[in-house]
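Attaching the record inline, Q. Sequence:
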Amino acid sequence: MQLYPAIDLKNGQCVRLRQGEFKDITVYSDRPEEIAAKWQSMGATYLHLVDLDGALAGHSVNKEVVKKIAAEVSIPVQMGGGIRKEEDIEFILSLGVSRVIIGTKAAENPEFIRQMVNKFGQERIVAGIDAKNGMVAVEGWEKISNLSASQLANQMKEYGIRHVVYTDIARDGMLSGPNVEYTRKLTEETGLDIIASGGMSSMEDLEELYHAGICGAIIGKALYENRIDLKEAIVAFEGQDHQGRKS
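Structure, as predicted:
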């Protein structure tokens, strides 16, 4: 299972929100590139970035920081938040980001995803599916659509997507545990690489996802509050020590 330490960016700082509420914010660092280097030094093999300002604005806002992070680390980085146009994708990839996560646009215009997968390839384009009670939410989680997460995931598969970041909004930043059952259901129904996001609070949560056959997990608040030891988690679930050797 691939682990993704999360760095959420707002106003150039590394922050966390609770349930995506912009008024409920904790600032962890004003130098996110140092946080990125820290996670890499602890053995991280992939990073997950979110441009929170971008998600609301509908275009990338924290580009300078993203550039610094990509320059600071040698591991791949995936990023989401406000990426809704082909030029945005090109620009983000040009900053040194490996994979771009498209959320709102995937739900509102799935055909766009097909075109982007054809242009940039399956490894570059990730669909972000954010859901509340199984229904897809869009525009920085401000709106709920009439599509279920399962319907959208199957449509994405048809359009060539291989990787999906699935976020259960009700659990995000709450340390209440991920929605293992629904994530398992999505994985089994689609056969896609479903990356669970939202609610990771402990090694037990990661263990449940691992045993449910989930391909990836994004860890945010639990790392910042020292509830999960990244080194230990990588050895347990990625099957390698922090030097990158298989254990």
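The CA atoms of residues 232 and 241 lie 9 Å apart. The chain has a mean pLDDT of 91.

More tomorrow.
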